[in-house]
Amino acid sequence: MNGRQAILEIRRRMRALVFDGGAVKVFGSAGTQFEIGQESLRFEQPRAMGDEDYAVGAVWLGAEIGDDEDAELVTQEIHIGIRVVHTEDETNDSHVELPRVGWRTASAEAGIHQVIGEISSDLKRLGPDTAFDAQIQIVSMGVTIPALRGAYREIKLRAIVTRAKGYPPCRYLTVTDAGSGNASLAWALPPGSRYDRNGLVIEYAAGATAPADVGDGTDAAVGDTSTSLTVATGTGEYSFSIWAEYDDDWPLEGTTDSYSIARTGTITVT
Q1: Does 130 have pLDDT greater than 60?
Q2: How many C-beta neighbours within 10 Å does residue 131 have?
Q3: Of 7 and 92, which is predicted with more confidence?
């Protein structure tokens, strides 16, 4: 995972964030008020959302420091900015002085302290079993400062990421003889549910050499989240490859796909 992939995954997680494990999303009813780029926080007047309080957020990349021991790694600064607006706050102090204000209908009476709390809790859950496959550290939770009809706060993170984009593979592939000319496959999906993962590709070929690239073998249709499959190959020796497929154009529309390394297996089918 490189820096760009890291902030796109953070964007996905923030858009899904809810208060107190409930159904009320932190960044708008659809979770869409969290974007890429600091400029998305720059507006002079509260957005037109009726008589509701609301939060907007953004994530962007900061400084990048190379690794002296591994040229493929970098230490990447990542910033998360949060703007909380109380439409009736003319003095700009309500979100600074009190932990719970506003949000009469949209966000369960939560102020900026609750927004920061939910973000902090989610960031601390990032680890090897999530789709965020980079080491991350919270450097600073920032300080709350007055802003127009509300408050602003900025979180600073530090992550060890790769220079190149990363595409996690399935964790393993096992292939066994199911008899009657069938091969039985089982695998574990890549950790988490990353923002850009499209699905899976499985191909097979006769003999002891598995397909090296997508398109080299015979396709075996498989569901995007499946973890097992029976393939009617006929009898003989067959080799299989499974790749995780990723959408390089996300969140835009496009047709550019990338693939993880393949997990492979060979079996003699009876």
Answers
A1: yes
A2: 19
A3: 7
> Residue 239: which CATH number?
2.60.40.10
Whether residue 133 sits in one domain with residue 94: yes
- The per-residue pLDDT for 86 is 67
pLDDT score of 184 more than 50: yes
Question: Which one-letter amino acid corresponds to residue 24?
Answer: V
Contact (Cβ atoms closer than 8 angstroms) between residue 242 and residue 216:
no
Tell me the residue type at 5.
Q
pLDDT of residue 2: 92
Q: Which structural domain range is residue 234 located in?
A: 172-269
Of 140, 162, 184, at which residue does a domain stop? 162
Rounded to 5 degrees, what are φ and ψ at 93?
A: -115, -15
Whether pTM exceeds 0.85: no
Tell me what pLDDT residue 8 has: 92
DSSP string, 151-198: EEEEEEEEEEEESS---PPPSEEEEEEEETTEEEEEEEPPSS--TTEE
Q: How many domains are there within the chain?
A: 2
- The dihedrals phi and psi of 211, each to the nearest 5 degrees, come to -55, 130
Does residue 197 carry a pLDDT above 90?
no
- Burial status of residue 80 (CB atoms within 10 A of its CB: 0-12, 13-18, 19 or more): buried
Phi, psi of 40 (to 5 degrees): -70, -10
